[in-house]
Design goal:
Blueprint: H1 5-11, H2 15-28, H3 31-38, H4 42-56, E1 61-63, E2 68-70, H5 72-97, E3 104-110, H6 112-129, E4 133-139
């Protein structure tokens, strides 16, 4: 069974990637600076933006030798794309946050009796389980 042109095109669709590059171009106000940020060549970024504009059927950026100016459609597309790219970035960070290890300083003041009987026996195991935690234990009566 042969695939239609649209089915083949959808398989190679990278609209999220195009949006991300577009957002970087707008924020950097430069194709070459955006290319550096996204690890592409300036010509690749330029072709990607041209392909994006052709696909959606509107000009997003007015280009000159000195500067880039968003069209009104480009401004709308930028605002929506920026929001979506931020959501994608946030979504990709979420799974790794569950693996984040706690770190910081915990200050504990206790009596000598409680510190010796209750805290001291569990302190070594706690520090081994949480190497990013520093315990500042102060015992006095």
């Amino acid at each position: 069974m042969s695939q239609s042109r649209n089915e083949r095109q959808e398989r190679h669709d990278n609209r999220a990637g195009e949006m991300m590059v577009f957002v970087r171009v707008v924020e950097a106000a430069s194709f070459s600076e955006a290319a550096r940020l996204v690890l592409m060549t300036p010509s690749t970024v330029s072709k990607l933006i041209a392909r994006l504009e052709a696909r959606i059927g509107v000009r997003l950026i007015e280009r000159s030798t000195r500067r880039l100016v968003l069209t009104s459609e480009g401004q709308f597309y930028y605002e929506r794309s920026r929001s979506l790219v931020a959501q994608i970035d946030e979504t990709e960070q979420l799974p790794g946050q569950g693996n984040a290890r706690p770190e910081g300083v915990i200050r504990v003041s206790s009596s000598v009796t409680f510190g010796s009987a209750a805290l001291e026996p569990i302190l070594a195991e706690f520090l081994e389980a949480y190497p990013g935690i520093v315990v500042d234990l102060s015992v006095s009566d």
